[in-house]
Amino acid sequence: MNVFPSLYPTSENRGKALFFASDLHAGAPSRQASNRRERLFIKWLEQRAPEAAAFYLLGDLWDFWFEYRRAVPKGHVRLLGALAALTDSGITVFFQRGNHDRWLTSYLSEEIGLRILPDPFEATWQEKVFFLSHGHHLGPLSWKDRVSYALMESSFLTFLYRWIHPDIGLYLGRFFSGRSREIHAPLDGVDLGEKELFRRFVQQAYKDNKAVDWYILGHRHLALVERIHRSQVVLLGDWIQHYTYLRLDSKGWILARFSEGGDIVLASGDGYSEKSKGGEESAELVSSHI
Questions:
Q1: Are residues 268 and 280 in contact, defined by beta-carbon separation less than 8 angstroms?
Q2: Fewest CB atoms less than 10 Å from the CB: which of 4, 145, 207, 257?
Q3: Domain coordinates in residue numbering, the chain
Q4: Where are the beta strands (DSSP E) in the chain?
Q5: With the CA atoms of 123, 127, 129 and 130 taken in that order, what torsion angle do they form, in degrees rounded to the nearest 10?
Q6: 17-289: CATH number
């Protein structure tokens, strides 16, 4: 029998909430546009901090992040400072690497205090098993994706890349990251129906008798809540267009869009009503049942 850790980091925080978000892509598409989104993300972190037991940031927080042994990418000082302030205050901030920001050494953990999660990560809460993943590895991937991810995750190639001068290496990384984002942009936030790899992944998990109660995923830039058999599946959206996050506490769950004028509830369950946080339910939410 598998034994999983708890989503809550300490027993003292059981009266508080967990917050999940992904795909800020800080740095894209320009410094000016990114600064505006980063400030909004920081405001969300600061406003939610008093009620937070922990934050789970499930990948692609940066559009490109690569740590050299003695250098890290320029910029994002306010974002890094806000994250460090959270961890200094005793709030646990978990970070799961995405396909745009997986090249770490120890800077984010030692200097900022983030706790790095494996992908996927499984944990329990209220007798339910949760599966957390950025999501880029899920489903029956094409051979091109398998080769691409294998190259990106090669420790030998990462070692060689660190020998490129940071001015060149970070420039190239941002260039190719931007190109990748532009290529995939037409499908971001669009429900592909039966072609959605996360659906095929969960369906296969049921066939293999490996399904869990909750799947919380990023990567697709799609804000979605869906029931697949007995599993609750949540796609977290992004902080480029949707500004969405998931709140989970002992009362229930809420998928909401952050707004300085008051958050807009997109979907909710258990003890929360659809308008418990103010605003109206958004028609942009994709929701279906299998």
A1: no
A2: 207
A3: 17-289
A4: 17-21, 52-57, 92-96, 115-117, 121-125, 128-133, 214-217, 223-228, 231-236, 244-248, 252-257, 264-270, 286-289
A5: -70
A6: 3.60.21.10
